[in-house]
Design goal:
- With about 325 residues, this protein is an alpha+beta fold.
- It has 2 domains: about 160 residues, Orthogonal Bundle (Arc Repressor Mutant, subunit A), CATH 1.10.10.10; about 150 residues, Gcn5-related N-acetyltransferase (GNAT) (Aminopeptidase), CATH 3.40.630.30.
- About 50% of the residues lie in helices and about 20% in strands.
- The strands form 2 sheets. A 7-stranded mixed β-sheet has the order 4-5-6-7-8-10-9, with helices on both faces. A 3-stranded antiparallel β-sheet has the order 1-3-2.
- A hairpin with a 4-residue loop joins strand 6 and strand 7.
- One of its GO terms (molecular function) is DNA-binding transcription factor activity.
- InterPro entries: Acyl_CoA_acyltransferase, Bact_Acetyltransf, GNAT_dom, HTH_MarR-typ, WH-like_DNA-bd_sf, WH_DNA-bd_sf.
- Keywords: Acyltransferase, Transferase.
- This is N-acetyltransferase domain-containing protein.
Length: about 325
């Protein structure tokens, strides 16, 4: 049992400090293994100067929310290590400005993709935590990092150009109508030996008519601009919607794309005034079951006794 976690908010400061130390260490490991000699603790000042150019110590302190003495101390270390330089302000030579050194500028092409992947990995970990509950989010983040450390997630993704592509969730776009069918057929073939049923043919051949014209929509997950996942939201009544056709191409899985697609569908259902959303799935899709339950879905008896899909053996609902 995690003793600190069992004390709840009483140990919040200690746990946040511990998590901060852990993440700083994880980032230092990432830097070391990617050949970068900068320290993780320098990031706020380094990134500020990268974005803003030359900035005074006072303005750096204000922008980062760090005390003036702390910024001065960090700046001295970074100057000693060759990451930043001091130069007089052109408006007032008595004011010293901090700016990135040539060494830092030369490191940027290597640093930027590392920063991007760190952000993507952390966003994915946070997306798997329970929203609106800081203590549970903290506990789940600690658990996820314990299972697969941040440095491992980042380094694995950096090693695979396909996995390191930018992920974007978009609403229905007619140019991807063919991709909707292809991705779902790929999913059916991968998990159910291409078991296509009557209902599949109707929805995949005419997604606009089956979903959009009835008040629903379709979401796509894009990786580097290419569609790699889909999720459909079907309107049943004004109060009831169905999430279906959730699929991510195997090569792009484990990046949180499926979760983001389902979350997008649930958010859209709320916007449309739905009170309940249901889905049908299969128990052998273990990871999918875990995802749905994390998002609040609960298994209930099928209202019709059994599903119209031969491959479905579980019916789940979530109240919005």
């Amino acid at each position: 049992m995690n003793f600190l976690a069992s004390l709840g908010s009483l140990t919040l400061a200690s746990r946040l400090k511990r998590l901060s130390d852990t993440l700083f260490n994880e980032v230092n490991i990432i830097y070391e293994k990617t050949g970068l000699t900068i320290q993780a603790g320098y990031f706020p000042l380094f990134y500020l100067l990268y974005k803003e150019g030359a900035v005074s110590v006072s303005d750096c302190a204000i922008a980062t929310g760090v005390s003036h003495p702390a910024i001065s101390k960090m700046a001295r270390k970074m100057i000693e290590e060759g990451w930043i330089e001091k130069k007089p302000s052109p408006k007032d030579e008595r004011t010293q400005l901090l700016t990135l050194s040539d060494q830092a500028k030369h490191a940027l092409p290597k640093l930027i993709p590392v920063w991007d992947e760190i952000k993507r990995s952390l966003d994915s970990m946070l997306a798997d935590t329970e929203p609106n509950n800081l203590l549970n989010q903290l506990l789940n983040l600690e658990k996820l990092n314990g299972e697969t450390p941040l440095n491992q997630r980042v380094l694995n993704n950096l090693a695979d150009p396909y996995l390191s592509g930018d992920i974007e969730i978009i609403n229905w776009d007619p140019q991807y109508a063919g991709s909707f069918k292809e991705l779902n057929k790929e999913w059916l073939d991968y998990y159910f030996l291409n078991l296509q049923e009557e209902w599949d043919k109707e929805s995949l051949d005419n997604p606009g008519g089956y979903y959009l014209s009835r008040g629903g929509t379709i979401f796509f997950g894009l990786c580097g601009g290419a569609p790699v996942g889909t999720c459909a939201l079907a309107r049943v009544t004004d109060d009831l919607y169905e999430v279906s056709k959730v699929g991510v191409t195997p090569a792009a899985q484990s990046r949180g794309i499926g979760r983001r697609l389902v979350v997008a569908a649930l958010n859209e259902a709320r916007r449309l005034g739905a009170k309940q959303v249901f889905l049908e799935s299969n128990r052998k899709l273990v990871n999918a079951q875990k995802l749905y339950r994390k998002l609040g879905f609960c298994e209930v008896p099928h209202p019709n006794g059994k599903s119209k899909y031969r491959r479905s053996d579980i019916y789940m609902t979530v109240t919005l």
